[in-house]
């Protein structure tokens, strides 16, 4: 499966990672199926944000409320690895819910997408679209 994601969303995630460095940024991916239509930045409330991330629970609850009310679906999540590469870490694997959601990881100026499956993370290809 190839994800489709707007170049504006990709740029916004890269900017969030650059602005948060040397801490990890994080946020929520919005979309359905193979299309990501938005990335909502959230506060990283983890007590050690230089090496871990935890999406602000209030932002997550709000996104689920919006989804239930007919708003965009939560397709997954994103975070950065300020001092690493854009691959899931051992910590990411330990935190994963194995629920099929998409994880975007930003590291070393690159974004890579992963599906959190019962067998672990599987990398997804993506295509940037205009808009």
TrEMBL record:
GO molecular function, one term: metalloexopeptidase activity
Keywords: Hydrolase, Metal-binding, Metalloprotease, Protease, Zinc
Pfam families: Prok-JAB (PF14464)
InterPro entries given in the database record: JAB_dom_prok, JAMM/MPN+_dom, MPN, VirAsm_ModProt
MPN domain ranges (all copies): 3-131
One GO BP: proteolysis
Organism: Pontixanthobacter luteolus
Lineage: Bacteria, Pseudomonadati, Pseudomonadota, Alphaproteobacteria, Sphingomonadales
Protein name: Peptidase
Superkingdom of the source species: Bacteria
């Amino acid at each position: 499966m190839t994800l489709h994601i707007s170049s504006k969303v990709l740029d916004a995630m890269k900017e969030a990672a650059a602005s948060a460095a040397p801490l990890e940024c994080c946020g929520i991916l919005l979309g359905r199926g193979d299309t990501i239509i938005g990335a909502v930045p959230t506060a990283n409330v983890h007590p050690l944000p230089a090496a871990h991330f935890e999406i602000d629970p209030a932002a997550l609850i709000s996104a689920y409320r919006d989804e239930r009310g007919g708003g965009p679906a939560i397709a997954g999540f994103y975070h950065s690895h300020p001092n690493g590469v854009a691959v899931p870490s051992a910590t990411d694997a330990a935190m994963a819910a194995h629920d099929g959601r998409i994880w975007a990881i930003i590291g070393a100026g690159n974004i890579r997408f992963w599906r959190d499956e019962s067998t672990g993370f599987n990398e997804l290809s993506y295509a940037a679209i205009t808009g």
